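Quick one:
INPUT:
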């Protein structure tokens, strides 16, 4: 029994020590609902790969509004979060520099996480997405109900520091605060982290007021309509159908009516002349023959003149509603193709003269001062095929978006996709990605490269003479889009490029491309061809010559390992994120300075070896202290003293706790526990042998 009691005491004491250590490692949850907390919540969902489940709003499974709602129940009414907001605006006017704003377009919501990026729950197949906020079809931004937004002060997100002033974080500027000058890049990230105390002094705006009393939750017959998956939505290309009024009876053209009157008058004159001829036959046969021949020639000449004037005025029917092409005739397709080239219709030729074609013809006739009938007669057709035909294009540029019933931007994006200049989603919003595609098309088609889709550019884009991309699937200097983003991410992995992925083929990206091309044996150029990109993405891609030299902007497991070792040496107190950010640079510089090394902020082979050695010494010191203390406890337990004394394992840690070091401590405690179990097992064996001898 005594042995059992001692066993229980030892294991209970060990359990308490372990629980105390583990509890110390658990991060405390933030109080309140802040914009930074919401962004961190969304990043967690993205990084952990949460599932998209319609109607869900729990950890690991959410839909679009559920992603927001799962953060402390913020957002107001899930079916209409925009209506619950007290401040909002249109995305085409720009998104404010505020983290944690809601983004909305009909049937879908997301969260703006700063730096031009957004996170949203997209669909069961796509899950949680992280993308350029301006490349999607967001219509409005809004402050989310229940979330507090900062007015003045420092905030930290993903290890980066931002400074809010008058309700928005600063970008592309600098500020001197408490004697220190901070520079903020285009994304608002500060080049220097402020003191830890600065973050707690952030002045958050007043809590969001109670939801207005006049707002009533709408009653929906089918909630499914309000959880539409973004990826499954299709842009509707439509025209207003003409009113379904009874068609008037078709009347013959006025020209035809005039012809019939003239024919009647000619018949009467012929009858009169025949009467005169019969009277004159009595006088002389010869004279009657002469008179008869002269009278017959005169009507023939008159008839020819009348017939020629009638032909000039006849208007022939070419095509109308209900007509359809046959194997022999492609008239309707020819009409539709020309209307498409002039911007009156947004779809390719179908060969059927349908309602959309009628509407397009009517609009063409109106703009070209023709009788608006919706019917293509010979006159309309002649103007349609001429160089003088008026087009229906308008200038499209940055932030232009399609309004209800119109799809000029979506049509432009679709056409650029066919020509292999545009590789993103058809959004109906003229983003920088669209401008980049237009710019490249203009360059290849010998048009002034502006990125603005003016009338001349659109006439060329939609014409049958438009040139396709001569280098499809390639990334060209100055371009933007998914091809560039994918290329940049791979260049970062191979350590040719460092820093934030900008989604634009800029100067720093060009420098990285040249380095890769040189290493791979290609001639340096301002373009990564399709073949070069395929090599870049393959397992045969050559790593950067400086791959093992860690520096700012790099990411990977080796960076995470570096952060852990620096944390063990008390040089780093941030998260083990695997990203070489400014905080890591500062830690490395401090280590290099303390060890009389060249202060570069980069970790070369020499610096890395020294960090490893010092970290191992520190780990060994901590482990030795724990093992010695554990051995002492074991001796006391075996001596029978553990009954009356509490057991504790203390390690001298006067410095602030950090996750990496706490992990080492926990591992050491587990090792000590194993040692304790071994001692106890041996003790039981010895006791058992003594009792056997007795």
């Amino acid at each position: 029994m005594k042995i059992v009691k001692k066993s229980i005491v030892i294991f209970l004491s060990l359990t308490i020590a372990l629980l105390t250590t583990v509890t110390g490692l658990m991060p405390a949850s933030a109080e309140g609902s802040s914009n930074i907390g919401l962004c961190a919540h969304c990043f967690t969902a993205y990084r952990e790969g949460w599932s998209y489940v319609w109607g869900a709003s729990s950890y690991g499974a959410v839909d679009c509004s559920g992603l927001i709602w799962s953060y402390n129940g913020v957002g107001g009414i899930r079916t209409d979060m925009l209506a619950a907001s007290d401040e909002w605006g249109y995305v085409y006017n720009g998104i404010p520099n505020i983290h944690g704003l809601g983004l909305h377009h009909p049937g879908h919501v997301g969260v703006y996480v700063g730096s031009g990026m957004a996170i949203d729950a997209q669909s069961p197949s796509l899950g949680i997405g992280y993308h350029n906020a301006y490349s999607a079809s967001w219509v409005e931004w809004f402050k989310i109900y229940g979330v507090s937004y900062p007015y003045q002060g420092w905030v930290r997100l993903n290890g980066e520091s931002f400074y809010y002033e008058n309700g928005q974080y600063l970008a592309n500027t600098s500020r001197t605060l408490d004697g220190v000058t901070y520079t903020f890049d285009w994304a608002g990230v500060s080049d220097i982290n402020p003191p830890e105390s600065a973050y707690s002094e952030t002045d958050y705006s007043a809590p969001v007021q109670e939801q207005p009393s006049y707002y009533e939750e709408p009653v929906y017959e089918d909630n499914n309509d309000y959880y539409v998956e973004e990826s499954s939505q299709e842009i509707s290309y439509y025209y207003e159908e003409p009113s379904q009024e009874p068609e008037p009876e078709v009347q013959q053209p006025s020209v035809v009516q005039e012809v019939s009157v003239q024919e009647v008058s000619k018949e009467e004159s012929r009858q009169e002349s025949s009467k005169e001829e019969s009277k004159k036959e009595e006088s002389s046969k010869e004279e009657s023959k002469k008179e008869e021949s002269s009278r017959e020639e005169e009507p023939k000449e008159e008839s020819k003149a009348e017939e020629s004037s009638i032909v000039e005025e006849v208007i022939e029917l070419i095509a109308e509603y209900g007509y359809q092409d046959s194997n022999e005739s492609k008239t309707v397709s020819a009409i539709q193709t020309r209307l498409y080239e002039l911007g009156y219709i947004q779809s390719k030729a179908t060969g059927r003269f349908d309602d959309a074609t009628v509407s397009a013809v009517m609009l063409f006739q109106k703009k070209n001062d023709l009788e608006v009938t919706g019917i293509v007669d010979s006159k309309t057709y002649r103007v349609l095929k001429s160089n003088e035909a008026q087009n229906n294009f308008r200038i499209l540029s940055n932030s232009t978006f399609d309004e209800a019933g119109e799809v000029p931007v979506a049509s432009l994006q679709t056409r650029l996709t066919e020509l292999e200049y545009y590789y993103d989603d058809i959004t109906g919003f003229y983003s920088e990605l669209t401008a980049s595609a237009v710019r490249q098309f203009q360059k290849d088609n010998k048009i002034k490269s502006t990125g603005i889709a003016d009338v001349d550019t659109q006439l060329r884009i939609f014409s049958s003479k438009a040139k396709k991309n001569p280098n499809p699937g390639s990334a060209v200097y100055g371009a933007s889009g998914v091809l560039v983003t994918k290329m940049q991410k791979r260049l970062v992995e191979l350590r040719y490029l460092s820093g934030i992925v900008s989604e634009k083929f800029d100067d720093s990206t060009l420098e990285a491309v040249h380095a890769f091309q040189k290493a791979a044996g290609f001639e340096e150029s301002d373009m990564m061809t399709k073949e070069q990109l395929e090599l870049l993405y393959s397992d045969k891609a050559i790593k950067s010559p400086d791959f093992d030299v860690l520096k700012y902007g790099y990411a990977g497991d080796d960076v995470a390992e570096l952060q852990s070792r620096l944390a063990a040496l008390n040089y780093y107190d941030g998260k083990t994120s695997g990203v070489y950010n400014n905080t890591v640079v500062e830690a490395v510089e401090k280590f290099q300075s303390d060890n009389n090394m060249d202060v570069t902020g980069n970790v070369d082979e020499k610096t890395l070896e020294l960090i490893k050695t010092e970290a191992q010494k520190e780990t060994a010191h901590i482990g030795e202290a724990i093992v010695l203390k554990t051995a002492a406890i074991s001796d006391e337990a075996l001596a029978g003293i553990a009954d009356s004394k509490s057991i504790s394992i203390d390690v001298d840690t006067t410095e602030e706790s950090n996750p990496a070091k706490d992990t080492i401590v926990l591992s050491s405690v587990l090792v000590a526990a194993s040692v304790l179990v071994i001692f106890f097992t041996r003790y039981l064996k010895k006791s058992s042998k003594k009792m056997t001898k007795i």
